[in-house]
Amino acid sequence: MVHHSIKINLIPVPFVIVPLFTPVFPVKSICIFLFIPLQYQEGVARIKCQNPKCGHDYFVPLSCLGFYLCPSVDLGVDFFDTAEVYGPFINEELVGEALTPFKGRVTIATKFGFKLDPEGKERWIGLDSRPEHIRGVAEASLKRLRVEIIDLFYQHRVDPDVPIEDVAGTVKDLIAEGKVGHFGLSEAGAGTIRRADTVQAVTAVQSEYSLWWREPETEILPVLEELGIGLVPFSPLGRCFLTGKINEKTAFDEKDFRMTLPRFTPEAIKANKALVELLENIAKRKHAAPAQIALAWLL
Question: Could you tell me the maximum CA-CA distance found in the chain, to the nearest angstrom?
Fold first, then answer.
């Protein structure tokens, strides 16, 4: 079964869920609602534009966010992914507010696992998957999302200081209590996935995967196929590189995460240009955009 991702106008959608292996919960079509408001005050959200050709931010009245999000549900989008660290907290609040009218029609996933900065200077200052912290995040996320159960609860990053068995066991308890529906992992290794799955069945795993980054094919995908776990590949367009809109002259904002990635140095971009040119040639023959070809390959 092919699942589609619908991009909501204005709101960047850098993630796409691809259930290469049958997920436990039924999902017809997919959209990941993932953007990070930089400011959230006086009824206005300042949203960072992730389009590499755009040099400004969007200032969107909070009362209007539902206007952009709600039509996607009517178009068939029924899966939304967020996390407490996005904002932090703000993204969950916005998702919860916008999707309240659609309870029973949508599936919402969120994540735990970061130690947030109490002073608010940084979004997070470390990892924290202690059982008591997981429970605290779950309770807070339930309130922000305005739901009775978190459909899919991911460990955002593996915490080396907490055995994965303890993490899985805590989520298992939350599932038994009716507060969580399913358990997921993000950026976890094959061994960690296996260990977690022996305690509590893992429904989905997030890993970066695209034509530009195929490392999961070596170990992760075989394990997921063996255990019947769904794949959530993030950055399916190579953080916009596969769109053909980035070249060695592209100037990134100093706060843009891509500034820290070796793949986005001018030299690396120039060296990888051949892949984009291949996508562009195929796209031209198919009367499509390079991004569509890259996503078609992934699906």
Answer: 55
The residue type at 2: V
Pairing of strands 114-116, 58-61: unpaired
Query: Dihedral angle at the C-alpha atoms of 198, 203, 209, 215, nearest 10 degrees?
Result: 10
Bond preceding residue 14 cis, omega within 30 of 0? no
Contacts of 158 (CB under 8 A, 6+ apart): 113, 127, 129, 164, 185, 187, 188, 189, 192
Tell me the pLDDT tens digit for each residue of 141-160: 999 999 999 999 999 999 99
Tokens 């999707």, residue located: 99
- For the chain, what is the mean pLDDT? 81
φ/ψ region of 117 (left if φ > 0, alpha if ψ in -120 to 50, else beta) reads beta
Report the catalytic residues.
Answer: 86
Q: Which tokens go with 121?
A: 């200077």
Dig out the tokens for 154 from the structure: 């991911």
pTM above 0.90, yes or no: no
Q: What is the pLDDT at residue 273?
A: 94
Q: What was the pLDDT predicted at 98?
A: 86
